[in-house]
C-alpha cells in the first residue's frame, strides 16, 4: 500500500488540555494579540497532515476545522510544499504589476480551466477573498455603468467595508462597524429547510427575480453576488442540488425582458477550490 500521509492518522492525547506549551503560548498571545481575535481551540498547531492536526504539546487531534473547510488540497500536501519551497527559494515577491512571472499566468490558466462555464475567461489574482469580491464588483460596475449589487439572505462575502455591506449577518461581522457602502440590495435565496415544503428550486429562483424586478429594477443592477453553496450562513444547499442552471436561466430571461445584461465573473477565494463550490463567489 502506498503511504499517503507523513503523520500517523491517530488521535493521541498526552495529558492536560491545553498542555503546558499551549498554555504558555496563550499567555504570550494575550500580551501580543487583541482579545477580539478569538480562536475556537486553546491549543497551538505545529503540524498537520491528512485528517490530523498536532499541537505544541504533541497531542494529535482529528482536524475537523481544515482552515474552515478551505484546505481541501490537504494541510501539507507534498506537491504544494515543494512548489512553494521552490518558488520562495528564487523570489518571494516582485509585484506582478512591476515584473511579471510565469506562476501568476499558470494559476490564471488553471482557474480559467476549473471555474464553471464554457466561454473565454480571464483571471486576476488578489490577496484575499474579500479583495477579490470587491474587485469583481468594481469590474461589474465599470463594465455596466450601473450601481446596484444584489446579494442574498445569509450571505457571507468578507470583512472589508464593501464586503461587510454584502454580508448578511450583523453580529459578529457588522455590528458597530458602519456606515456601510450604499446600493447593496438583499434578496431571498432558495433555503429548502426553511422555505415552504412545496417550494421547488424554480419557484425560489422566481421569487428572487421578482424581488430584483420589483424592488430594484433590473436595469439598475450591475452585479448579483452569489455563493452557490452558502457556508458561513449555515451550509445552505439550495433546492435541486445546484441553484446555478435554473438561476442562470431565469437571469437570462430577465435579461431579455428588461435589458438586464450580465456576464459571469467567478471569484475563487485564496485557498478555495472551485470543485467543491464552497468558498466560490459567482458574480453576474
Ligand atoms: C464565500 C466567502 N466569501 C468571501 C470570503 C472572504 O475571504 P477572505 O477571508 O480571504 O477575505 C470568505 C471567507 O471565508 C467566504 O467563505
Automatic annotation (TrEMBL):
Matches recorded under Pfam families: Aminotran_3
GO biological process: gamma-aminobutyric acid catabolic process
Keywords linked to the UniProt accession: Aminotransferase, Pyridoxal phosphate, Transferase
GO cellular component: cytosol
GO molecular function per UniProt: pyridoxal phosphate binding; transaminase activity
Keyword Ion transport: no
Cofactor (UniProt): pyridoxal 5'-phosphate
Domain of life: Bacteria
Signal peptide span: none
Coiled coil: none
Similarity section: Belongs to the class-III pyridoxal-phosphate-dependent aminotransferase family.
Descriptive protein name: Gamma-aminobutyrate:alpha-ketoglutarate aminotransferase
Organism in which the protein naturally occurs: Rothia aeria
UniProt lineage: Bacteria, Bacillati, Actinomycetota, Actinomycetes, Micrococcales
